[in-house]
């Protein structure tokens, strides 16, 4: 309700909803809110004549029983929509339907995440790159059971497959693309879709941060290879959850899963 403290999670959801609203719908939401704030609880209904599409009429004509929903929508419009109306950057322009080539980025990105999980050890480890003395090599045999060299963990490579290292990566700012694609989702499933998008954003961020933490595990006080391995294992768990959420997004958007990637990435 208006006046309550807004959590980061609710703020994100409000921004997602606003990105799918046209300038007319945001304006109408504000008009409706003002009408309801000025009316009594017994008011039969308020409506706005701004806009004429069937979808718009359906969302703007509100009976007294949905007074609370209307006021919440009004609050969201005030928070994020007013600025878009006052400047020459309406939400409808920012929320243009993504092109097929843009949507394919989500498919390609999912394939890369699958590849990461299928080749986890090879991607997150580099072996035999150090030149060791005979004494060092014997030490490795005694302590690690190795023979030809040591293996270093490379946790930051995980970020490469989640769009956190390059603007050219298919999943770079993927959550923003998902928000724009919300207009393509069945209206009856929109709330569930937005929830999945929000969870994906949070989990992908967490995976990237865990990979970063793992990369510093040996350098930190009381750190060591065991610390690196521990955080890298947690990173994998987060990456697996990220993959599941991304797969759900593809399902909502009716995007096929591409054949598995092969070769070395």
Describe this structure in words.
The chain is mainly alpha-helical and 265 residues long. It has two domains: 8-94, no CATH class; 100-252, no CATH class. Helices cover 60% and strands 4% of the residues. The chain has twelve helices and four strands, in the order H-H-E-H-E-H-H-H-H-E-H-E-H-H-H-H. The strands form two sheets. It has a two-stranded antiparallel ribbon. Strands 3-4 form a two-stranded antiparallel sheet. Helix 10 (174-180) packs antiparallel against helix 11 (190-215). Residues 40-65, 77-94 and 138-148 have low confidence and may be disordered.
Per the principal axes of the C-alpha atoms, what is the gross shape?
elongated
Overall mean pLDDT stands at 73
Per DSSP, what share of the residues sits in E-state strands of 2 or more residues? under 5%
N-to-C order of helices and strands:
HHEHEHHHHEHEHHHH
Low-confidence stretches: 40-65, 77-94, 138-148
End-to-end distance, in Å? 49 Å
In which range does the helix fraction lie?
55-70%
Taking strands numbered 1, 2, ... along the chain, how are they ordered across the largest sheet? 1-2
* Overall structural domain count: 2
Over all CA atoms, what is the radius of gyration? 25 Å
> What's the total helix number?
12
Main beta-sheet annotation: 2 strands, antiparallel
Q: Which structural class fits the helix and strand makeup? A: mainly alpha
Query: How many individual β-strands?
Result: 4
């Amino acid at each position: 309700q208006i006046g309550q403290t807004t959590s980061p999670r609710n703020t994100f959801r409000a921004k997602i909803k606003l990105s799918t609203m046209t300038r007319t719908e945001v304006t109408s939401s504000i008009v409706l809110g003002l009408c309801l704030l000025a009316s009594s609880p017994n008011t039969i209904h308020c409506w706005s004549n701004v806009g004429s599409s069937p979808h718009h009429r359906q969302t703007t004509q509100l009976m007294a029983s949905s007074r609370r929903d209307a006021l919440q929508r009004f609050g969201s419009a005030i928070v994020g929509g007013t600025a878009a109306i006052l400047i020459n950057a309406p939400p409808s322009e920012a929320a243009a339907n993504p092109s097929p080539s843009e949507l394919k980025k989500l498919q390609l990105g999912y394939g890369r995440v699958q590849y990461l999980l299928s080749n986890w050890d090879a991607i997150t480890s580099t072996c035999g790159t150090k030149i060791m003395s005979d004494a060092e090599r014997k030490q490795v045999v005694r302590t690690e059971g190795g023979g030809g060299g040591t293996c270093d963990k490379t946790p930051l490579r995980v970020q490469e497959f989640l769009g956190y290292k390059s603007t050219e990566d298919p999943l770079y700012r993927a959550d923003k693309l998902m928000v724009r694609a919300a207009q393509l989702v069945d209206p009856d499933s929109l709330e569930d879709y937005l929830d999945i998008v929000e969870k994906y954003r949070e989990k992908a961020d967490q995976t990237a941060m865990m990979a970063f933490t793992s990369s510093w595990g040996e350098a930190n006080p009381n750190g060591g290879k065991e610390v690196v391995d521990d955080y890298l294992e947690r990173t994998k768990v987060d990456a697996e959850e990220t993959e599941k959420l991304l797969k759900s997004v593809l399902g909502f958007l009716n995007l096929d899963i591409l054949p598995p990637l092969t070769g070395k990435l």
